[in-house]
Amino acid sequence: MTTTPSELAAPRTQRRPAARRSNFELYSWLFMRLSGLVLIILVLGHLLIMNILDGGVHRINFAFVAGRWSSPFWQFWDLAMLWLAELHGTNGLRTVINDYARKETTRFWLKMLLYASAVLIIALGSFVIFTFDPNISN
Amino acid sequence: MATSEVTTAGSGGRARKKAGTLYRGDIGMWSWVAHRITGVATFLFLFVHVLDTALVRVSPNTYDSVIDTYKTPLVNLMELGLVAAVLYHALNGIRVMLVDFWSKGAKYQRPMLWAIIVIWVVVLIPSAYFMLRHNVEKIFGA
């Protein structure tokens, strides 16, 4: 623990060939922190407006959603929140599966299920935001 | 997990005495466990929430009738649980970022945990009041 860098012997293990090196886990680690920072504003703001202010959940209905999505600001807010939250959560669950699934096949299929659900949620959510019709019939 | 390693090292002899427990970490380990549980719970809710919001593409009546279940007392209480989970995850996320990026973050990880618990309680009390008020008045009469 008290060894200074000058006393360290040269590493005996060979460097991995460049082609096999991947920075994916580094970027995923960084993404969790950056998306987390943005999500603090987006999600806590969303919860404050939807659940706490001005009657909270009791005032939410179709007309309320139509009013909010008439503004590009809230459309963009919700779209950004959808993508960031879903990717942040998917990456988190990927880590959880890697930690607890012991069999290679279990691990593989749990992750496939996770990725399929992420694609479904991002695609469906984006579709709904982009094609929302306030005049849709009952 | 930088957080749990720091905690184990920082608690010194105390961690060794608890050798019989599943994990040997100290309170920092529980903050990590809570971060996982709140994260997974929020992710599962997000799945349901995108599906229920997608009903605005079906019809206003379908959307309204499903959203009405969110206004019932039991689901309302679960929403408070969701807010509590997300708030903890956000506050502890800030703590994790401070441990990672602030030079004194690892040294102060424990007081920072107590700080976020205090903020969590202080924010949750008025939130619970505003979220549950309507249903409490309806059940017990205003």
Task: Tag the structure with descriptive keywords.
heterodimer; A: 138 residues; mainly alpha; 3 helical TM bundles of succinate and fumarate reductases; 4 helices; B: 142 residues; 6 helices; elongated; disordered N terminus
CATH architecture of chain A: Up-down Bundle
Strand content of chain B: under 5%
| Measured distance between first and last alpha carbons of chain A | 71 Å
CATH topology name of chain B, in short, is 3 helical TM bundles of succinate and fumarate reductases
Number of DSSP helical runs of chain A? 4
> Looking at CATH, which topology of chain A would you report?
3 helical TM bundles of succinate and fumarate reductases
- The domain tally of chain A reads 1
- Give the helix/strand class of chain B: mainly alpha
Number of strands of chain B: 0
Taking pLDDT < 50 over at least 5 consecutive residues as the criterion, the unreliable ranges of chain A are none
Helix and strand pattern of chain A:
HHHH
Quaternary structure state of the chains depicted: heterodimer
Mean pLDDT of chain B: 86
Largest interface: A-B, 41 and 38 residues
CATH class of chain B: Mainly Alpha
The name of the CATH superfamily of chain A reads Fumarate reductase/succinate dehydrogenase, transmembrane subunit
What is the CATH top level name of chain A? Mainly Alpha
Tell me the overall shape of chain B: elongated
Rg over CA atoms of chain B: 20 Å
Q: Which word captures the global form of chain A?
A: elongated
What CATH architecture label of chain B applies? Up-down Bundle
